[in-house]
Design goal:
By secondary structure, this protein is mainly alpha-helical. It has 3 helices and 2 strands, in the order E-H-H-E-H.
């Protein structure tokens, strides 16, 4: 397994899928749908983003 799908990470972080895709866009990750794959490194950066901005 290379990482998580957007939908899986949104469930783990308890955030809306659209918000998570917006964060991916901010961080310049190529995630355009709920089925897009994210690497574990991208997941970590997204998690850090939410921790630092909440």
């Amino acid at each position: 397994m290379k990482g998580l799908r957007v939908i899986e990470l949104s469930e783990a972080l308890n955030v809306d899928i659209a918000d998570l895709i917006a964060v991916c866009s901010i961080l310049k990750f190529k995630a355009s749908s709920r089925l897009s794959m994210l690497s574990f490194e991208e997941c970590k950066k997204i998690t850090d983003y939410y921790e630092n901005n909440n």
